[in-house]
Amino acid sequence: MTTVIINIKELLQVRNKDIKKIKGSDMKTLPSIKNAFLIIQNDVISDFGKMSELPDIKEDKLIDATGKTVLPAWCDSHTHIVFAGNREGEFVDRINGLTYEEIANKGGGILNSAKKLQECTEEELFEQASKRIEEIMVLGTGAVEIKSGYGLTLESELKMLRVIKKLAANFPIEIKATFLGAHAFPAEYKENKEAYIDLICDEMIPAVAEESLADFIDVFCETGYFNVTQTERILKTGKLFELTPKIHVNQFTSIGGVQVGVKFQALSVDHLEIMENKDIEVLKSSEAMPVALPSCSYFLSIPYTPARKIIDNGLALALATDYNPGSTPSGNMNFVVATACIKMKMTPEEAINAATINGAYAMNLSNTHGSITKGKKANIIITKEIPSYNYIPYAFGSNLIDSVMIDGMLI
Ligand code: NIG
Ligand code: FE
To answer: What whole-number distance in Å separates Cα of residue 163 and Cα of residue 393?
Structure first.
């Protein structure tokens, strides 16, 4: 099946195959071709260029994109899409003055979601998560990472990861799975936290590996959650089972989590709302992708990740949603890109680089996703008629997507 898209006003993020991520001042450049064509063979990008160089080939499907912009589908490298129900009650509690921390200390927060999830069957969870996957595909996401971490028992963590595996088998969108048993301490381990670390290391990680249920391992390294020593033990054990570390760090406090991530060669270090100079410095010696989650800052009214400081220090940055029921009930990458520009002072070029190729890197997918490159997956967004790509973050409340193609198929 050959699809040819012609008269593209601007084709964004055209890159050579060997580019894995973009960092520092290079993030200000978004390579593009004006008045372009794009050719797709089955599920893969096979050619692109200026309209004046369009080859004479027989297509099965012709799309005229006059006035429209085409870009790679978003790569959302940090979500918790498998969850049960919602936490709208806590949302109202926060409006009425309680903090996220106070709600968690009362047994709400992650433990509230864990209780709901434990009571749900695998089928019910799959149904609920399927709707969210359908929703994010329409919003332009073509690859997504999904974490466990609302199970917090061996059985329920495996249940979550099996749901993620089933989602990956049932939807065209690329899905990577992360084991996040270290998301919160279950109430029964409050007085004996080391026993929960033992459970994670001695039972959960081997069981996850045995069924090949996860690509990555994550820990919520934060005051009141998992400390640096506990995080080190979990990541070390995960690595023994070939789970690559990703890590939640510096959401509320800087306690050395970035350093642990770097020490264990984490693929990404995520959140980073509170960054001290030492955290920036240690990242300079590492290949870990810093990941900002601006919708979380928006929803919880916490500081935004200091994107300017990170990028101006020569580092890379990716943007992701953090879609979850507590801190970010939204999987909208368009909103993330707009918020990064509006609140974090990223330029549109930086934000689009962060939400495509750098997001792909943070999921180990930059060989196949995140740019318009020959041989990469044909996962693209075709916008409505817009004056320029600056309009994408500018018109932050409008739906500017005309259509989304995943694996070469319009959805
Ligand atoms: O990334 N910070 C830890 N985990 C999620 C929130 C989890 C929740 O509140 O349910 C996050 O923001
Ligand atoms: Fe998260």
So the answer is: 33
Residue nearest ligand 1's atom 9 by CA: 326
107 pLDDT tier (thresholds 50, 70, 90): confident
Mutate to test the pocket of ligand 1, among 81, 100, 220 (most ligand atoms within 8 A of CB): 220
Cβ–ligand 1 distance for 147 under 6 Å, the answer no
- CA nearest ligand 1 atom 5, residue: 327
Atom from ligand 1 closest to the CA of residue 322: 1
Instruction: Name the closest-CA residue to atom 8, ligand 1.
Output: 326
Cβ atoms of 77 and 18 closer than 8 Å: no
| 2: β partners | 41
Q: In this predicted model, what pLDDT tens digit does every residue of 53-76 receive, in sequence order?
A: 999 999 999 999 999 999 999 999
pLDDT tens per residue across span 128-171: 999 999 999 999 999 999 999 999 999 999 999 999 999 999 99
Q: Are 400 and 388 in contact (CB under 8 A)?
A: no
With H, G, I as helix, E, B as strand and everything else as coil, classify residue 14: strand
| Contacts for 131 with CB less than 8 Å, ≥ 6 apart | none
- 261 vs 248: CA distance, rounded Å: 9
Q: What is the pLDDT of residues 181-196, one digit of tens each?
A: 999 999 999 999 999 9
* Cβ contact 140:333 at 8 Å: yes
Q: Is 11 in the pocket of ligand 1 (CB under 6 A)?
A: no
- Model-level pTM greater than 0.90? yes
Asked whether 251 lines ligand 1 (CB < 6 A), one says yes
- Where on the phi/psi map is residue 81: left (φ > 0), alpha (ψ -120 to 50), or beta? alpha
Ligand having the closest approach to the CA of 300: 1
